[in-house]
Amino acid sequence: MANEKKRKVAVVGCGSVGTFAARAIMASSDLELVGIVRRPESLSRGVPPELRDIPVVSSIESLDGVEAACLAVPTRQVPEHAERILSLGINTVDSYDIHGELVNVKKRLDTIAREAGSVAVISAGWDPGTDSLIRVILEIMAPSGITHTNFGPGMSMGHTCAVKAIPGVKDAISMTYPKGQGLHRRVVYVELDEDADFDSVKEAVLKDPYFSNDETAVILSDDIDSLRNSGHGVLIERSGVSGGASNQRFKFEMSINNPALTGQIMVGAMRASLKQPPGAYTLPELPLIDFLCGDRDRLLKRLV
Amino acid sequence: MANEKKRKVAVVGCGSVGTFAARAIMASSDLELVGIVRRPESLSRGVPPELRDIPVVSSIESLDGVEAACLAVPTRQVPEHAERILSLGINTVDSYDIHGELVNVKKRLDTIAREAGSVAVISAGWDPGTDSLIRVILEIMAPSGITHTNFGPGMSMGHTCAVKAIPGVKDAISMTYPKGQGLHRRVVYVELDEDADFDSVKEAVLKDPYFSNDETAVILSDDIDSLRNSGHGVLIERSGVSGGASNQRFKFEMSINNPALTGQIMVGAMRASLKQPPGAYTLPELPLIDFLCGDRDRLLKRLV
C-alpha cells in the first residue's frame, strides 16, 4: 500500500458521525482526507484537535481532486447533497436511514451517477447497512423463517434528528428500547424553546413517520446534555429452515459507539465506491472484500 | 418468478450435503434439479424418497443443459471435479475447506473458468463461507481488533472425511469443542478395520494437517453409528476500534444442522454463479443479493 497513491476523499458535515469518519479516514493507509465541508455559518466553529490540520471549506468544489465524499449530514438532507456532488463526478456515501424510501432514492441517484460517471453507496451505516448484510446472510443460510431485528438500548441518531427538526424543540434525544420480537419502545426526551408548547411538540413527534409505528413516550427535560451517551446495540435473531431442516438458529449481537460505527462503515463504503462501475448501490449489492484496505489475496487468505 | 424459466442445475455426490442441497434446490422456485451425479459404483444405492423422481447418472455429460453443479464431494476431490466440470462450460460451487490452500485453488480454477466461460464459487459452505462473510463485516465495522472463531460442539465434516481416508479406518467421526479464544479440542472417534493397528491410525490422525495445530484425542469405538449427530455451531467474537472508538463488541452465534446448512448455502452460491462474469470467486468477492431468489428491488426493500 505504501507505494500506491492514496485516494483523495472529503467529509461533508462535522457532527459526531463526520468527526468519527474523519478519524477513520486518517487511520486508513489508502485514503487521504483532503478537507471537511461545513455550512458557511459553521465555518468559524472549532473542529476536534486531531482534525486541526485538515482544511475546512464551505463547498466541495474548493477542494482539489476529491474522488469520494462521505455525507455525514442529517438523513433528510442526504438526497439533495448526493445529487449535487454525484453530478460533479464525485462518489458519495451516505447513511440514509428511511427504510421505506431508500429504493426510490437509490433509483434517482443511480440515474445521476451513471450520467456523471460517479458512484453512490447509499444507506451505508449499520441499519440500514451492515445489519442489512446480516439479514441477507441469514436468508441465504435459511431461506424460510422469521428474522427479528431488536435495537437498543441506545440513542437513535435518525430519530433524534427528526425530533430536533420539529419547531419549538431546542434539544432532544430519542432512546430506543427493545421489547423483543423486533418490537420497540421509543422514549423521546425534549428540551423546549422558551415559548414552545409541549403538547403540540408531543403531537408532532407522535405523528412523525419515524415514530408512528412504535410505542412512544415523550418526556420533557430541562437538561438534555446530562442524558447524552452514544452507546447503542442490536440483536438480530433468526430461526429458519435450511435444505428442509428446521431449527437452524442464528444470532448477531453488537454493543457499540453508534456514530463511531456509522462513520467507520461509511469510510469502508467510500473505499468500495472507488472500485465500482458508475451507478448507485446498497451494501448487499457490493462485494464485501471491496470495503477492506489491503491486498485482496492476503485478505482472502486471512479472512475466508 | 413463475413466468421466468427455471435454471437447470445438478448435484454431484449424494451424501448428506448432496441430499440437503438437492432438497434446497427443489424448494427454490428459480432452480430445476435435472439430475444427481454419483460414482458408477454407487448408482445402485438408493436415494432418499423425495429424490426418487430425479435422474441419477454417473457422469454430468449425460444430463442436458446443466448450467451449474453443486460439488457435494469430499473436500480433497473438489479441485479435480471442479476443473473437469468448469472446462465443460458448467458453473461449479464447492465447499472446499482447507483454508491455507483455497486462494491457490481459486487461482487454478479462475484460469480454467475464464477459458471455458464458466464460473466457480469456491469455499461456499459455512466456514469457509458465511463465517468468512461475518469476519469481513466485523473488520469493515472495526478495522483494528481481534476476531475469535470458536467452533462446535459438533462433528466436523472436513475433519471426519480426513480421518476416514486413513488406511485401517472403517468409520470415524471427528468432534470439535471450543476452548475459547478461537482454540479447539478435537476428539476423534475411530472404528477400525479388522486387521488395523490403533497406534498407527492414531499417529496418522495426529500428523494430518487438519489436526496438527489443535489439541487432539483419538478414541477407539466399536459403534460409530450410535455417536452420530449432525448438530454443530459457531461463536464468532470481535472487540475492536471504529473511528478511534474502542470497545466496539460484536458476536455472531449459530446452532445448526451442519450438512443442511452447507447444502443450502451452496444452492445460494449456484444462483449467484449464474449472475457473474466468468472466473472463480470466494463469497466475499460476490454481491450478497445475488444469492437470494426473487425480484432485486423487493428484496432490497425488505432486507436493507
Summarize the structure.
The structure is a homodimer of 304-residue chains. With 304 residues, chain A is of the alpha/beta class.
Topology:
The structure is a homodimer of 304-residue chains.
Chain A: E1 7-12, H1 16-26, E2 31-37, E3 56-57, E4 68-71, H2 78-87, E5 91-94, H3 102-116, E6 119-121, H4 130-141, E7 144-151, E8 154-155, H5 157-164, E9 169-180, E10 183-192, H6 198-207, E11 215-220, E12 231-242, E13 245-257, H7 258-273, E14 279-281, H8 296-303
Parallel strand pairs in A: 1-2, 1-4, 2-3, 4-5, 5-6, 6-14, 10-11
Antiparallel strand pairs in A: 7-12, 8-9, 9-10, 12-13
Helix pairs in contact in A: 1-7, 2-3
Keywords:
Rossmann fold; 14 strands; four-stranded mixed sheet; Dihydrodipicolinate Reductase, domain 2; homodimer; seven-stranded parallel sheet; about 300 residues; alpha/beta; 8 helices
